[in-house]
Write a structure and sequence with these properties.
membrane; 25% strand; seven-stranded antiparallel beta sheet; 8 helices; Protein Transport Mog1p, Chain A; alpha+beta; 2 domains
């Protein structure tokens, strides 16, 4: 019999190029940005931009590049505050200002600002010139992803406001991308944070064509201090990707911005306590011993069973427009996998459980989005297969059924079904000699043979 790895390789595309993702797929990965703002994998199939091209980052100080922006520290549009004559402004960064909040693990805090990025269209950017005190937080993965967050304290609110106005003036002086070589074009983003704010995105171009690589910059002033965040990302040819990144940066820095109240003309005594997230109601996520994930499947002399086992290979969706494991199985609390391999077939089942019903709903929604995104463009560019959603005659509630078939109409492919029950999600796949003409019947057969194990899932996890 072949080795287990070979069995799975039969129905897994090995060595295919990783193509740019559809916009919906990029949006679906928003959670990933929270911990790592690496390139969002340029949006090629649906976005206006083509392939992501590696371009020089033109870092001004040769260090890491990137960072995160913010959320409202108080009401008010991007205008200077009213008269503040006679205010005794804070002159130093307090040690308890939570600059590291929501920065990725491994970020380090430094006593002085070290400029990492150029400003609008390659201009001087935010230099913190004239600041009385600065502190800096930098994170990098050592390869390409990085983030930076800085606070700069000025003599008064007028000086802090002028620092932001200077960056705004730089963008106003931008010139169009050049038809040859590397150039940068900056686009202002709407923002109403703090007492004054300014957000823009630097987009990189090569020979007049947008590469998809970009940096978001966000500056927020409260009183006599400016909070500056920057972060790199990819897929900037899609406006929705840009909106997602700008919003994520804003959200990640929300607590820091609210803590900037210590610099206001009428300051708070100390940064406010960070709101604690509401923990979901606990549910039982342990898959009981003896759970028969193989229910309804028969092992004969020509087939080989693998599992059920918690560490077995499960349903692999990576060939579907490079869907990540963050989508499925998405870090479950518990899991169980089973495979039944025959001469020309491979059936795989994977049961994953989560710490709440809401989390399981998110996982199913993520798979739905991935299917819709990949189906909308037929599949990955250069891949000889097509992905499509199918609807079996008797599809279970809270399910999605989809298939991979050969683009040229030949035989060979797989049918998939993903179903949520309570805080559990069951994924099944059946690789065989399907074609576009037989895949709907295959979906019906898959739903029928999955029914016995779904009954067990309902018994254990409700729904």
């Amino acid at each position: 019999m072949p080795e287990h790895d070979d069995l799975f390789a039969t129905f897994t595309h090995q060595g295919l190029p990783v193509d740019p993702l559809p916009a919906a797929e990029v949006r679906r990965r928003g959670d990933r940005l929270r911990r790592r703002r690496t390139a969002l994998v340029a949006v090629g199939s649906v976005a206006a931009v083509g392939v992501l091209v590696a371009t020089p980052l033109a870092l001004m100080a040769g260090g890491a590049d990137s960072t995160r922006p913010l959320d409202p520290a108080g009401p008010g549009p991007a205008t200077r505050s009213a008269s503040t004559e006679g205010v005794e402004w804070r002159t130093a960064v307090p040690p308890d200002l939570p600059l590291l909040d929501e920065m990725p693990e491994g970020a380090e805090r430094y006593p002085n600002y070290g400029q990492q990025l150029v400003g609008p269209c390659g201009g001087p950017g935010f230099t913190a010139a004239g600041a009385l005190d600065t502190e800096d937080v930098i994170w990098t993965d050592g390869v390409e992803a990085s983030e930076q967050r800085t606070v700069a304290v000025y003599a008064d609110d007028a000086a802090a406001s002028a620092a932001i106005d200077d960056v705004r003036d730089q963008l106003a002086a931008c010139e169009q991308p050049t038809p040859r070589g590397v150039s940068i074009w900056a686009v202002e983003q709407a923002s109403d944070l703090g007492e004054q704010s300014y957000v823009f995105v630097n987009n990189w171009y090569t020979d007049g064509e947008q590469t998809g690589e970009a940096h978001v910059h966000q500056l927020v002033r409260v009183g006599n201090a400016v909070l500056y965040d920057n972060a790199n990302f990819g897929g900037s040819g899609d406006p929705e990707v840009v909106d997602l990144t700008v919003e994520q940066v804003r959200e990640d820095s929300a607590y820091v911005v609210s803590s900037m109240c210590v610099f206001a003309a009428d300051p708070c005594d100390e940064p406010p306590a960070k709101p604690q997230p509401v923990e979901p109601a606990s549910v039982d996520a342990e898959i009981p011993a003896g759970f028969t994930l193989d229910a309804g499947l028969v092992v004969d002399g020509d087939s080989e069973a693998i599992g059920p086992a918690p560490d077995g290979d499960g349903v692999d969706l990576s060939a579907m427009c490079s869907t990540l494991r963050g989508t499925w199985p998405a870090e479950p609390v518990d899991r169980l996998a089973y495979a039944l391999a025959g001469p020309e077939t491979l059936r795989v089942r994977e049961l994953a459980t989560y710490d709440s019903v809401a989390r399981a709903e998110q996982v199913l929604a993520g798979v739905r989005d991935a299917v819709a995104a990949c189906s909308s463009v037929g599949g990955s560019r250069g891949d000889p297969v097509t992905w499509s959603q199918v609807v079996p005659a008797f599809e279970p509630p809270d399910s999605i059924t989809f298939a991979m078939t050969m683009s040229d109409g030949g035989i060979g492919g797989a049918v998939y079904q993903v179903t949520r029950v309570g805080n559990a999600v069951l994924a099944t796949s059946w690789g065989a000699e399907w074609s576009s003409a037989t895949v709907e019947a295959g979906a019906d057969d898959l739903a029928a043979e999955t029914a016995p194990v779904l009954e067990q899932v309902r018994t254990v996890f409700g729904g």
